[in-house]
Amino acid sequence: MVVTKADNMTDMYASLRSNVSMLGQILGDTMRTHLGDSFLEKVEQIRKLAKDSRRGDQAAREQMLELLTALPDEELVPFAKAFNQFLNLANLSEQFHTISRNCDELVCVPDPVEQLLGRMLNGRVDQTKMLDCLKTLDIDLVLTAHPTEISRRTLIQKYAAIVDCLTEQENDQLSDRERQQISLRLRQLIAQIWHTNEIRRERPTPVDEARWGLSTIEESLWHAVPDFLRQLNDQVQQRTGQQLPIDIAPVRFSSWMGGDRDGNPFVTAKVTQEVLDRNRHAAARLFLKDIVLLVGELSMEEANDELKAYTNNSCEPYRHVLRSLRQRLRDTIDYLNARIEGHNPEVDKSSLIWQESDLKTPLEMLYKSLTDCGMRLIANGLLLDILRRLACFGIHMLRLDIRQDASRHSDVLAELTRYLGMGDFNHWDETEKQAFLLRELSNRRPLIPSNWQPSADVAEVLNTCRLIAKHPAKALGSYVISMAGKPSDVLTVLLLLKETGCSHPMRVVPLFETLSDLNNAAACITDLLDIDWYRGYTKGMQEVMIGYSDSAKDAGVMAAAWAQYHAQEQLVAVCKQAGVKLTLFHGRGGSIGRGGGPAHKAILSQPPGSVDGRIRVTEQGEMIRFKFGLPKLAVQSLALYTSAVLEATLLPPPEPKQEWRDCMQRIAEESVGAYRGIVRDEPDFVAYFRAATPEVELGKLPLGSRPAKRRVDGGIESLRAIPWIFAWSQNRLMLPAWLGAGEALQAACERGEMGLLQDMEREWPFFSTRISMLEMVYAKAEPNLARYYETCLVPKDLHHLGETLRQRLDLGIKVVLELTKSDSLMAHTPWNRESVKLRNPYIDPLNFLQTELLARTRKETTETPASEHVQLALMLTIAGVAAGMRNTG
């Protein structure tokens, strides 16, 4: 596919343009080789017509549509594949540009930690206070497998190899022969990609998803973490003269992959057991690789008295210790292989790496010996990297969270109390439930009879709790309760853990998801902390999860954002009053409609006091790859998180003025009314949504292991937040990310509050971040494309609703431009604006083809089903649009 200079960005991005052009040219050559010149010419013609159409050329648009609708069946798949892969290569070029030596200054900002330290230590923050905060930072990034990662793992690995080639090409000292070899490798990789099926043939299992998460660590984060910490240490040492502790771990990683069973019947206790074993196996395998390398490095003989005594004066004391660790790691891998294969081998735990200290203690002894003997330079090499990996990942690699719906726990007790003749737990009021739960939590006798035979659903919950009881606390993170709303929801889980033999105090975390749950969150936690038994259990720590996805789906982004902010403020106050340290767990998605957006801005826009050195955040779906898929990108992301949490803790944003609060409250009330007036109250909305988007067809795409709906027979309310967002991003209306916001902002303007809004946007990080996110989704929205979907797919008697929605979109864009005093959206972020422009000529044809294919598949009958070409091409258009939109779910 030929890409001309005029097709791309302005001259300031010459390096990016060059890579996009080169990769596009190789892709075009690959297509020409296998499909001929005429096919490539048709692809190129459609691309140029799409570009002209976007400039308002109606004749070009009509010609493009004629070509698309006339594509023969055998060309549908390669055509969709061509545009899909160009978008993936464009994404890759952008990712690489941010870490390239030739990165433009408007894209590659200075290191955020270095900038922050400069501002802090310029008299604003005491050096000792800053160092203490940095040493105790607790940032937990929770990787989740929500089904928005379109690309297959095998393709992701090939994309990473392309980045390696682009990196090598930047070496000015390469010989002509070396350049030819890199060029050949690029052509090979792009040919491999072209001939690889982009759509999974089968839906991934939860174990597949967990293995995908581990691959991100193995291929990127394992290398990025010590690189980041070395960079951080150098920055701190340069500013303060002090070094960071060798076991510092400001950022750690947890996972929901294989532990999130909320609405996913495929995540069972057996699956969770396998994932835990695989996590340990991956850690043992990676540590073994490191130890093998370290055996080669630590050949020195001189040692301190402790190491000499430990190794009985071995002539190679360091290697003596390392060879023992090497064998124990090999034995550990063999043991875990047997477990993964379904066996339960007898084993002497002392022969394995069974707990973290089995690795940490001997490695720290080696480190101390080297530094005692004047070999600090050697100690601070690979050995220090291993110690810091151990501090970050432990021997379990990822701490696995468990998540389950509150009703599943109460159903266990309801079935049990009925069996015991005590009545039905689910029919008791909250006071009765709490009294029963606290009585049983303090009772030493077992509650569950040994001869009780529970139903399958109840048995599965109990089996999960027994599994938790068998594993060490460091293998597990939090037990998250979805749809929690009352103290009994938390106490019920604690009772089930007690009754199944869990001896370690696992964090049990209520997740407040809907608007009403968020509004009631502080009252719930207040009631919990008023319970003496529970206060004792928490040991002064309370974690609360804030749901972004379902609250936005319930109330719209503006009302949900204010409810989240207000809930956090109240929770901070409640926990401070109770003398308890609060950790807020933010359940953010990749898209704006699910709380997504730049993490740095998001953290700094939280209420003052809500971060306090501790935060948990989900990293979901395709955003894991965009932020952590390449080691240098991962280092940048780790720096952004660290600087944001440090700044939010030591230089928190100001308390919002009362007039800002009052204005935001009015905006929230009006926005939720406008949002629900469409989504809930408009009788034609569900029918329009299902006709105008590929929502039904998305359910057939084998993206993730979890069903798209909580209930098969449910409507919008039962649809998960991810396909809800995903479907609207496909027809480019982006509705969940803006509906209700523009109407509320316009109402504020009509009340004469424009000046107040502009003050808020200028001075209040929370509000300015909301406006910035709105600008981004407005810029990505394409009302004309959404109208085309409507024309082709929606019955005419429903077109009135589409017109209403597009009017609402236009209203929102106008009021935001007026508020920001800008002539165009994202005027202050030219890189993001140009990034959107770059993709449009390649996404647009996929959208137009998608509508044609949707129309064909919806006309299919039992006698004449859509051809396999049509069905696969439709899946490819969905994948391509998702790649172009990037933060789709």
UniProtKB/TrEMBL annotation:
SUPFAM superfamilies reported in the protein's UniProt record: Phosphoenolpyruvate/pyruvate domain
Keyword terms, alphabetized: Carbon dioxide fixation, Lyase, Magnesium
Cofactor names: Mg(2+)
EC number(s) stated in the UniProt entry for this protein: 4.1.1.31
Organism, scientific name: Shewanella septentrionalis
Family in the record: Belongs to the PEPCase type 1 family.
Protein name (record): Phosphoenolpyruvate carboxylase
Reactions catalysed, as given in the entry: oxaloacetate + phosphate = phosphoenolpyruvate + hydrogencarbonate
Enzyme class: lyase
Subunit record text: Homotetramer.
Annotated TM spans: none
